[in-house]
From TrEMBL, chain A:
Coiled coil: none annotated. GO terms for biological process: proteolysis. InterPro entries: Metalloenz_LuxS/M16, Pept_M16_N, Peptidase_M16, Peptidase_M16_C. Residues 42-163 form the Peptidase M16 N-terminal domain. The lineage of its organism: Bacteria, Pseudomonadati, Pseudomonadota, Gammaproteobacteria, Lysobacterales. SUPFAM superfamilies: LuxS/MPP-like metallohydrolase. One of its GO terms (molecular function) is metallopeptidase activity. It comes from Luteimonas viscosa. It holds the Pfam family Peptidase_M16_C. This is Insulinase family protein. Keywords: Hydrolase, Metalloprotease, Protease, Signal, Zinc. The keyword Zinc applies.
Amino acid sequence: MKPYRTAWLLSMLLCAAPAFAADSDRWDIPVAVKKLDNGLTVVVSEDRSSPVIGVSVVYGIGMRLEPRNRTGFAHLFEHLMFEGSENAPEGVFDRVITGGGGRNNGSTRPDFTNYIEIAPSSAIEPILWLEADRMTMLDFNPATLKNQQDVVKEEIRVNVQNQPYGGFMWLDVGFNAFEKWENNHDGYGSFEDLESATLDDVKAFHRDYYGPNNAVLGLAGDITPEQGFALAEKYFGEITARPVPEGPDFSEGLNTKEKRIQQPDKLAQVPAIAMSWKMPDRGSRDQPAMSVLGALLANGDASRLYQGLVKGRELALNVDSLYGLTSEWEYNGPTLFTVFALYKPTTDADAVVAAVDEEVAKIVAEGVDNATLARIKTQLLADWYNGMESFVSRADNLAKLQLLWGDANVANEIPGWIDAVSSQDVQRAASTYLTAANRTVIDRVPEAMLAARDAAPPAND
Amino acid sequence: MKTSMKLLALALCTTLSGALSAAPAALPKDLPPYGEDKPLPVAQIGKKTLPNGLEVWVVPRDGMPRVDYVLAVRNAGFAADAADAPGFASLFAGLLAEGTAQRDSRAIAETAQSFGGSVGASASNDGVMVYADALTSHAAPMLELLAEIVRTPTFPENEVRLAQANALQALKAAEAQPSFKATRALLAATYGDHPYARVQQTEASIAGVTPAALREAHALRFHPDRALLVVTGRVAPTEAFRLAEAAFGDWKALGAEAPDTPAAPRSVTPSRVLIQRDGSVQSTLRIGRPAIPATDPDYVPAILAGTVLGGGFSSRVNQNLREDKGYTYGASAGFAPSRVGGRVQAGADVRNEVTGASLKEFFAEFERLADEPVPEQELLDTKRYVAGGYLISNQLQGAVAATLASNWLVGLPSDFLASYVPRIREVEAAQVQAIARRYFDPEQQSIVVVGDGPAIAEQLEPYGEFKAVE
């Protein structure tokens, strides 16, 4: 096939180099780390290319450790962190940050909750004051609790209930794939649980999980490490460490029996499928191999599944992949590699699964050729750098790596780990993790289409 | 969980965002003040026009090991589509990278991947933008690949057929999204017969696409003298100009020029549309009217007024509808400018019971902006917010390239990027009020609601007679 050849030659050139990237493609991200006496870890990455600073405060608490009868609490609590303290009443937080030219956000994931800001560096001191203030105390009051219960319910309506597919590719797959409650409950929460949350719950959660010793502060951009450490000491140094309750053991092995689920969808017009496999543990030698395997299968238009399912067999409209709610490097417990596709009404879930199986089987049998392996690694290197470009992403990524791996310098090691992945590693990852037994499949079908299928079963049924 | 609304706002925010409504909370006494502002960095843009008319702008940077390219072509977007072929330009743009004289679709994708980047194109009202990026060591071959896609797309039969089949399914999927239907109805209410109303595909327009029509469109629309190449990243201007000359120096137009877009309406008779969505648990509200092109003298004060009213998390409508009332996960409002006209759009997805109450709050905020001068502190905070947005987006080299190219497409000069923050700082409260009177008069707004009619009809009654659409 002629068009193949150009790419093959180019890739061979890449292979010939001792490292997988040219020297001009190297980017060592500055990382300086210091732990304050109260346990707050501070990570600083200096970059003077713009008078802007990215800030991230990441707490070691997420959906896995929320109270059993309070599904969705970690996320509800995230919202309450924006509702003010005794020192800084409701509205102050947003006003000071936006008035300083900045933007802010927060998000909740299984293993962490993060709070991020990006702003002109002239706003750094007020931002750190505000973050330290809400780490110290919140204004626990019934009005803001009620208001944010309503906002969270609207968020669930907009993202789940009123949305075709309802986020099943990142919500329902987890409800079904995992065994333990910590991993398989609805982190968005039931309305009943959300409404039952009390001010005492809020107070206890803040006391237990929002102390400095359970947090990492990340700073990236227009600041030196010395300045960053000094400002962290100035604003956070007085906050006392608080005991963090010991969490349960939420580890799980791989699944041993396939799960297949069909869900009706009353809003969707086109059927969709999500296939999820449990991932290797964080830090496992298979983790970089899974990263390469995931990219080989489903990262972009050159990927095997795009070429095999969207082009090739013409079964699917698109192919996307997800690593749980985070990335292939940002988890600390059971998580999933998920392939999501909208498929054509002229086919069915079995055909899509069979096509994915064929592509996986090819990798298990043959591994991956050098040219393709080199391309994938180049792409992953570029993706890794791209994810570090924005100062707020850099601050956040480094803070998360520090929290989850205990070492933000992992940021500069991951490119090398990817580079070291061999064809055999990819084969091993495919045969270990992408098995039918370890798989959970959800077939999400428009209600009308299901009704039509029931009314007129196919002739060969 | 999936990022709070705030990140969505961040994505929308280049020109929008806000400050607090009502009396702002007093600042804590211990809160340290902002430090001294540093000067706004101004992108040094190297410029050259090739003999064939292609403009080349280069913004060198020292950051990450990547080069970003954007090639923008004027009069190649939705406004150039025939009335019976809405959304043609998006299929056209999407198919550029699906086959060239030298490479098939798969080889293009694999080649881009081997450069550590990607290529692709998208259509807007006023043009098509073709994007590429690569690791620094692959900057030169990536620009060659970009040129190949721009100059020699072949629109292969099989790729066109597959793109059509997939576009039909994607259209079906989009029709299930309330926002998709709401946007279509609001654009129709805003622009009437003007091509800016027709950006979404229809089954018929998808079915009508042929390889011949795509090749004809390519000859008519892609002309070097109506194109701009922006290069940002780790590359010296002399080197970038040399690469551009090599890749595009002998590019020639293949056909006649497409005509310019006629002016868009500046006002219309407002309409009321209710699109029935059985069992919907929320009402998708959209409010809007025609407004101004990006080159209008009102545009800079309009950015500021739109930001106060509905740009970003701290804007008045979001603070009111989300933070104060808890009606919605997010509310926004602001201006969308194009080359020959623009529009106002406001909206939120709200639960059924508060559909009427939400419209009331939107219009109350529109009126307050017209009736009362924005308090000094709020105005100042909002100006700082806009300046911050400039700094934040300029930190990303791809964003700088895309902003320069999209400004150029709507007729704004290269120095608009650097000058709008100082010009925003000069805007006075009285100008914001004047903008509000001119463009946010509730009487002049069309209203589109996608939701469950029987559940919400009564609440809509005070807003006039809604035409029910299935």
